[in-house]
Amino acid sequence: MLIGLLFVSQPSHAQRVSLVDRVVAVVNSEVVTLSELNERVAMAERQLRRQNTQLPDRENLQRQALERLILERVQIQSAQDLGLRVDESQLDRAVARIAEQNNLTLSAFRVTLEKDGVRFDRFREEIRNEIMLSRLRQREVDDKIEISESEIDLYFAELKSAEGSGATNLEYNLAHILVRLPDQASPEVIERARAKAAKAIADARGGADFAKLAAGLSDAPDALTGGEMGWRAADRLPELFATALRSMQTGQVSEVLRSPAGFHVLKIIDRRGGGVGALAERVQQTRVRHILIKTSEIVSENDAKRRLADLRERIVTGGMKFGDLARLHSEDGSAARGGELDWLYPGDTVPDFERAMNDLKPGTVSQPVKSPFGWHLIEVQERRVAEVSEDRRRMQARMALRERRADEAFQDWLRQIRDRAYVEIRLEER
Q1: Which CATH architecture fits 167-277+393-414?
Q2: What's the pTM?
Q3: Domains 167-277+393-414 and 282-387 share a fold
Q4: Partners of 230 in the beta sheet?
Q5: What is the reported pLDDT for 13?
């Protein structure tokens, strides 16, 4: 099937057909075109260069980008079948917020996008898809994870048995490669996938750039950004990962790990001691507020850091109030409250945020801090010691167990909907 045909008249009145676009995959009743694929490859290349990651072979990157587009298309179709929609007013507000974050009017933002080769209508659809896929995951995966009281009891028993070793309080900065397996895969398919993961290990241990390997062959959602998962607490990782990491050192690459989703390879980029354990009965609380700037294809890491550094300068030396600037600039739900997060217990925030917060004295403002949500400016207001109720300890355990299962459950769900879809790949056709 060919689309986008251009007919050019010749002097002989014969018609010559020039291909300007073509179908590279069929996903159920929809198509993925070469132009879509080329846009996604270019986006991945820009992101990898921004991270100073070596680019994988063009062919491998193209195949990885195509699989992402297929998986994205399957998810969008699932969302539409469930009646999930992002109406125009919601989308308009999201796009306007992004323009505002870049200190641009909507018209100026549109001009900037188009100068960078990004079509405004395509950008709007990407934002619509991001919102829809987030809602889909929440409904189909996260909301369906149930933790029983007996599982919480077992979790506390595991922590108590490991108490003193410090293993449960460790945090890891991980990179990850996933070789996904289809449901009911044949022995031959399983062996090929295992061999692919084993080769990645051999290459990584031989000195190859792990991020380049991930971008070229991993099936995980973070593959095209080099496979980096960021900092994770050991007790919130899938048990398969946590067990393997206990015997590994910083910089080391794991053996092949098998889960229902497929074969995994892990690398420890860094490790550090964790915070207060889940068994503590009295802990230090911190009253804090923050300003969040999210990164995107439009807002780079450097842009976010630069904006926050400017805001910090206005607070520290310019006499501006933190809360006023948070209301104007923060992209977090706390913006209307001046960035106030109220009193936080250990474990209430992600590790990167918590570590930076703990390093601050009351009344001081941090330098820009990176977390999985974006970049933050943090102000600690005061601290106190408080008792942890049994209900709260069990709530924290429930959250840890849900987080432990979330990624694995999401990967398994992705595998299932990908296997159910009709997919025909035509990338090799000319």
Answers
A1: Roll (3.10)
A2: 0.68
A3: yes
A4: 174
A5: 37
